[in-house]
Amino acid sequence: MNLDTVLTLFVLPHVVAGTVALALFWMAAVLQKGSPLHRRVGQGYLLAMLAIILTAIPLVILTWMRGHPVTAIFLGYLTLLIALTCRNAWCAIRFRRDPARFAGLDMQVLATTTGLAGIIVVIMGLTRQAWILVAFGMIGPLILLQLAKQRRARKRGQALASNWWLKEHYGAMIANGVATHIAFFQIGLMRLLPGLETALLQQMAWFGPLMIALLAGRWLDRRYSQWPRARQTGTS
Hints:
about 5% strand; two-stranded antiparallel ribbon; globular; about 80% helix; transmembrane
């Protein structure tokens, strides 16, 4: 069995999981937040994302073995990024009363690994003038900066907003939504309609969801910015 044949064995479940995730993402988005149905759909979405991660791992390995190391490294980095955001989306709800557990060793290791992988992707992008790699790779260093900022805040015992878990949750879900939509527009739609595959549309497929996500994040931050600061990081 050659590599191309093995690759096809993982592509179909990966695509199916992505399709399910896209549908559940919008179902969760329109449902009343915090309702039982919203929670169930959200859990289903994260399970679909888990399936995407598990099927992506062999795809990354096979891509490397087929002689495409740059693509494999980039896809591996994106897989790490999705794993981190899925973990945070779930744990923000589960450990809403325990921010120290949310920022536990598993998150520290995964975030650090993702951040370092992002730096590698940025370097690859700069050396090849591949600006998509640079733009998305920069998320990695930003994760490292945020991690360092959180550590300093915990050491200083700075106040933690009472809705910290909500911001972590919707921030992670927005990031997951970016990944889901990029996969749909850049991979799924372009293959279904190859006539649309132009340089401009490819750029829009990558950066369009990212720009919308940034705007959505700012809007949500403003909406929930008035919550009281009730917890102390040093006592949690």
